[in-house]
Amino acid sequence: MQYRINPKNGDEISVLAFGCMRFKRDEKETEQQIIKAIEMGVNYFDTAYIYPGSEATLGRILSKGYRDKVKIATKLPPYLVKKKEDFDKIFHTQLERLKTDYIDYYLIHMLPNLDVWQRMISLGIEEWIEEKKAKGLIRNIGFSYHGGQEEFVKIVDAYPWEFCMLQYNYYDEFNQASKNGLLYAADKGLPIMIMEPLRGGKLVNLPKEALQVFDESEEKHSPAEWSFRWLWNHPQILTVLSGMNSQEMLQANVASACLAQADIITDKEKELYKRVKDVLNRSFLVPCTGCAYCIPCPHGVDIPMCFTCYNETAVTRKISARFNYIVRTAGHNSSKCVGCGLCEKHCPQSIAIRKELKAVTASLESFPYKPMAAFMNRFMKH
Ligand code: SF4
Ligand code: SF4
């Protein structure tokens, strides 16, 4: 196992972290998996208040003599905080579930924008964090993020964070917080944890054409290895989370992590990643380049974003694409289109925008769009 040093506090963190979002039903099996991971050098375990059963399972396993060997990261869901007392209520439940007296890395979960953080501030979270840190109950405070680059920078600047967690992989280099966001946070001295390194498995199950591109390399790697290598090539990244629910996956990822190095990707390899990304883009549903010549739409439709999210359904899980669609197009979604056709006159790709927006609506605004959107919109407002 390779380790990187947290520049904020000197912690040695394994470059491969264990994502605990989905454990197997069989706790015995999960226990074997976690103990094996610890024995192989994994020392960072990431869970959250809202992952069903995860904190309690992790707590039970780590309490069998492993707590001091690892760092625990868990998260506070802002949308469940209605009043100041809720901070303590949630936090103490987490300590109980995790059978621990302190949390090494505590994150505000999925901050979608600055407004949500400001609502937390209005409820007194800054004083609350200060008190918990003074008592040693929270060792490091950070946030996890899924929105766009602009809000990310605002959130980074809004508080003296000690780390952050982003969705990042070679396909998303220019999506979400993106490479610019990552470099911005790193420049501010924040260690960066990475989630979704394989885009929910989509970068593992590559189309044949993409596999052939990687095959041109003299060095042979599995699709997962190509993804991890690309991430570890960034010296700013402290650790990469992976939800490893089989011994084979654990063994393979640890083997890759043992070879992890920064700044090793050659120009030739960069070209391969670019071509694989091109293949993935071609497998997309709408050939939109995001040039934005078609906007503003008089009815407020964010056409490029609608297509970005629709295209994501080809390379990511539908539930993630739907979630991103709700967050990124709130109030500017495809069904707002009245079919005037103005936008089509400006599209250099000659995309039948009206027809494609109908397809977006059918795909991403079908059930459970409405209840999810209502829930998310409430969450984003608060
Ligand atoms: S066709 Fe639809 S998306 Fe295009 S400008 Fe008109 S309302 Fe907007
Ligand atoms: S003009 Fe065409 S290619 Fe450009 S963002 Fe709009 S739909 Fe996409």
In short:
The protein is an alpha/beta fold and 382 residues long.
Description:
The chain has 382 residues and is an alpha/beta fold. The chain folds into 2 domains: 271 residues, NADP-dependent oxidoreductase domain (TIM Barrel, Alpha-Beta Barrel), CATH 3.20.20; 79 residues, no CATH class. 44% of the residues lie in helices and 13% in strands. The chain contains 15 helices and 10 strands. The strands form 2 sheets. Strands 3-4-5-6-7-8-9-10 form an 8-stranded parallel beta barrel, surrounded by 6 helices. The protein has a two-stranded antiparallel sheet with strand order 1-2. Strand 4, helix 2 and strand 5 form a beta-alpha-beta unit. Helix 6 runs parallel beside helix 7 and helix 12 packs antiparallel against helix 13. The longest helix is centred in the C-terminal third of the chain and has 16 residues. The radius of gyration is 21 Å and the shape is globular. The structure holds iron/sulfur cluster (2 copies). One iron/sulfur cluster binds next to helix 14.
Topology:
Elements: E1 3-5, E2 12-14, E3 16-19, H1 27-39, E4 44-46, H2 54-62, E5 71-76, H3 85-98, E6 103-111, H4 114-122, H5 125-134, E7 138-145, H6 149-157, E8 163-167, H7 178-187, E9 192-195, H8 208-215, H9 223-232, E10 237-242, H10 247-258, H11 267-282, H12 303-312, H13 318-329, H14 353-364, H15 369-381
Strand order of the largest sheet: 3-4-5-6-7-8-9-10
Structure ligands:
iron/sulfur cluster
Main sheet: strands, sense, barrel: 8 strands, parallel, barrel
Provide the CATH top-level class of the largest domain.
Alpha Beta
The total beta strand count reads: 10
Number of domains: 2
Radius of gyration: 21 Å
Oligomeric composition of the shown chains: single chain
CATH topology of the largest domain: TIM Barrel
Helix-strand pattern, N to C?
A: EEEHEHEHEHHEHEHEHHEHHHHHH
Overall shape: globular
- Mind telling me which CATH architecture of the largest domain this is? Alpha-Beta Barrel
Count of discrete alpha- or pi-helical segments spanning 4 or more residues: 15
How helical, in percent, are the residues? 40-55%
- Tell me the distance between the termini: 42 Å
Mean pLDDT: 92
Low-confidence stretches: none
Structural class: alpha/beta
Q: What do we call the CATH homologous superfamily of the largest domain?
A: NADP-dependent oxidoreductase domain
Strand content: 5-15%
